[in-house]
Amino acid sequence: MAVPAAKQRLSVPFDYDKYLRPGKLPHIWCPGCGHGIVLKSLLRAIDKIGWEKDNLCMVSGIGCSSRTTGYVDCNTVHSLHGRAFAFATGIKFSKPELNTIVISGDGDAMAIGGNHFIHLCRRNIDITVLVYSNAIYGMTGGQYSPTTPAGSYATTSRYGNIEPPFDPCEMAKAAGATFVARSTAYHTKELEKILLQALEHKGTSVVDIIDSCPIYYGRMNKFKSASHMMNGLEKDGTITVAQAAKLTPEEIGGRQLRGILHQAERPEYCENYDNIIVKQATATKGA
Amino acid sequence: MPNSKKKLLQGNEACVEGALYAGCDFFGGYPITPSTEIAEILSVRLPQRGGKFIQMEDEIASLGAVIGAALAGRKALTATSGPGFSLKQECLGYACIAEVPCVIINVMRGGPSTGYPTGPSQSDIMQAKWGTHGDHPAVALTPASVQEILTETVRAFNLSEKYRTPVIVLYDEIIGHMREPITIPEPGELEVINRAKPECAKEDYLPYDENYLVAPLAPFGEGYRYHVTGLNHKADGFPVNDSEIIRENNERIMRKIDENIEDIEKNEEVFLDDAEIGIFTVGSTARSARFAVNALRKEGIKAGLLRPLTIWPFPDKAVKKMADQVKFIVVPELNLGQMIGEVQRVGNGACEVLGINRVDGESIHPTQIIDLIKKHK
Questions:
Q1: Three-state SS for B130?
Q2: Which residues in chain A are closer than 8 Å to B78, comparing Cβ atoms?
Q3: Which of B61, B220, B229 comes nearest A75 by C-beta?
Q4: What is the distance of C-alpha A231 from the center of its chain?
Q5: Phi, psi dihedral angles at A256 (to 5 degrees)
Q6: Which residue of A has its CA nearest to B232?
Q7: Average pLDDT per run of 10 along chain A, which is 287 residues long?
Q8: How many C-alpha atoms does B6 have within 13 Å on its Cβ side?
Q9: What pLDDT is attached to residue B37?
Q10: Phi, psi at residue B168, to the nearest 5°?
């Protein structure tokens, strides 16, 4: 069937190659994994904000999400499990002119890197954190993570997970992040828009991105396919802040909120420190 | 040194002077006894000169931030003690495989675990070598005076910059907290080495170029876009599964130290030329050993001291020479026997090796060394 003229693509397709390292694809992610979709949204957001690759730094920890840094053509560090927040703090604080993004996963950010995540938010250092939340340790074969819902199955919760899950957004907000948002791999346009706002934000911005792991989480929890999983968890399992505002808590049910969940203004860490440097340098000179 | 400044300083204060002399412009740390003065003083001094100081949320993050800072082009330092050094092992291994220059000060206190925070020890000698998993290069320096803490901190930065590897400075709490008159060197008086920067075209840059034993390191943000990982990697920094490349890279990071051992090694010898009895030790214990050697010589006993200022890589050659020459070697150390194993390994039965050990938070007194030597000779 012919595509109606009005629906035909009018703009030139986005050139992802501009931001991807030649020769590094195909990526390691499994068929049905949403990480590649998230990466595409991120690259479009980076393009919109117009950051030069030379001044862009991406730091990741360990896990499936953290392999992202290998594919992006900028200054990249694939650091240690949970430690991307510390590495990124050292880089950003050393060279505030570097636009710095941390790519992390739910296990990386909420478990082994939980303390570093909290303190990065508390400092309000100008770093954007993406948490690819697929509720599972994918790289090691599907163990339950701090965001795995209670009652669901993983290779280390064969009888159903008895631990309640963390909400990365609540954690970020409580710790002091000044921009907190959530989207999903399913809502690609919305995700791009939210990521752009996160990148534009001065201070610590955290975006929790609900993403699906059909290979491990999906199979263990009886999702028929990757698309069933996306529809179930990302599309039907979430609701925008605006939509939720018109509903009662009962009507919202277990659905997670999407959109900007928290925004505040607070002095940024590197700028605060620069004020000390200026004062001290002046004082020392005068002495 | 006519214009040099004389000062009465504590060991940890001298460490700060050495770091700043070497051009340290980043400190990431976490409070821990008995090293905390280094952080406290740098929190004042660094911003005065445009440098960056950050107190991180834990010991792991401190070295993580230091590695990040080093990749951004800074000369970065952290300081800690035993329990913190244990936590730093993870990032230490990362700095080894990713070849990130940085300096770690470890003011040794009693262990294991929380142990004896305010008491001296030399019980991290082996941790400095073997603490992090996997085979990796280890460079560790052992100053024995306040003046040497300054000069060895400068040397630690120089070696880390030259060989793109973390360098550890190990000194016990006695040296860290004692006060001695020292001379602050004038600018230019001590050599200061900065890491080699790439000269190639930006698109040709390989952070682990196999044409070099130590490839130049580009700071982030200067147009050399590259990847850093703790995985085994190839010349361009990307992970590999190729066993040949993995072997070559793992061996090269060891080779860059082994092949430059003469540049890295530094020993002091006291009456060793004609010695019939050898002493091998470092740090505060070496001060007692020096006293003992002088006292024994006055009594006509030919004792001599070999004092390494670089404990890792281990001074095999110097120890071998001593072992072949003397009747026996005494190894006094503030632990239950760490360096002695290395001396026995190198000596390989050429002479007897005796230990003097203390783990009670007290120093080894010269008389302990003198008595043992007199009894055993």
A1: helix
A2: none
A3: B220
A4: 20
A5: -90, 145
A6: A78
A7: 57 92 95 97 98 98 97 98 98 98 98 98 98 97 97 97 97 98 98 98 98 96 96 97 97 96 98 92 69
A8: 4
A9: 98
A10: -105, 135
CA B346/CA A17 separation, integer angstroms: 56
- What is the crossing angle of helices B11-21 and B146-163, to 10°? 40
Report how far residue A109's alpha carbon sits from residue A9's, in angstroms, rounded to the nearest whole number. Answer: 38
Residue A34's domain comprises: 30-286
- Answer whether residue A18 is part of any domain: no
Terminus-to-terminus CA distance in chain A, angstroms? 81
E strand or H helix that includes residue A285: helix A269-286
Which residues of chain A lie closer than 8 angstroms to B220, CB-CB? 57, 75, 91, 95, 98
| Predicted confidence (pLDDT) per residue in B136-155, tens digit | 999 999 999 999 999 999 99
**CATH number for the domain harbouring residue A59:** 3.40.50.970
CB A101 within 8 A of CB A56: yes
The answer to whether B54 faces chain A, any CB pair under 8 Å, is yes
Of B47, B238, B239, the CB nearest to A276: B47
Beta strands in chain B (DSSP E): 5-10, 26-29, 52-55, 76-80, 102-110, 116-120, 140-141, 166-172, 179-184, 227-229, 267-270, 277-280, 303-308, 310-312, 328-333, 352-357
Residue segments in chain B with a per-residue pLDDT below the cut of 50 = 1
Count of domains observed in chain A: 1
Dihedral (Cα; A243, A246, A250, A256), 10-degree rounding: 20
- Distances in Å between the alpha carbon of A191 and those of A37, B64, B263? 10, 30, 54
Question: What's the token pair of residue A122?
Answer: 């508390």
| Domains, chain B, ordered by start | 6-183 (3.40.50.970), 268-376 (3.40.50.920)
B117 touches chain A (CB under 8 A): no
Q: Which amino acid is at B279?
A: I
Query: Which residue of chain B has the CA closest to A74?
Result: B225
| Structure-block tokens of residue B314 | 């281990």
Which pLDDT score is estimated for A282? 81
- In a domain, residue A24? The reply is no
Beta-strand relationship, B116-120 and B102-110: antiparallel
Coarse DSSP helix, strand, coil percentages of chain A, rounded to the nearest 5 percent: 45, 20, 40
- The pair of three-digit structure tokens given for residue A275, joined into one six-digit string: 């004020």
pLDDT value at position B194? 98
Would you state the pLDDT for residue A11? 72
Return the ∠ at Cα B131 (arms to B125 and B132), rounded to 5°: 150
Asked whether residue A238 is assigned to any structural domain, the reply reads: yes
What pLDDT shows up at residue B3?
55
User: In sequence order, which residues have a C-beta less than 8 Å from that of residue B3 and are 6 or more positions away?
Assistant: B186
> Burial level of B44, CB count in 10 A (0-12/13-18/19+)?
exposed
Burial degree of B305 (CB within 10 A; 0-12, 13-18, 19+): buried
Choose among A255, A189, A165, A231: nearest CA to A32.
A231
Is the distance from CB of B63 to CB of B104 less than 8 angstroms?
yes
Interstrand relation of B5-10 and B179-184 (parallel, antiparallel or unpaired): antiparallel
Residue-wise pLDDT for B101-117, tens only, equals 999 999 999 999 999 99
In angstroms, the CA B142 to CA B156 distance is 10
**CB-CB neighbors (< 8 A) of A86 in chain B:** 56-57, 60-62, 64-65, 68
| CA nearest to B51 within chain A | A277
Q: Which of residues 166-195 of B touch A (CB under 8 A)?
A: none
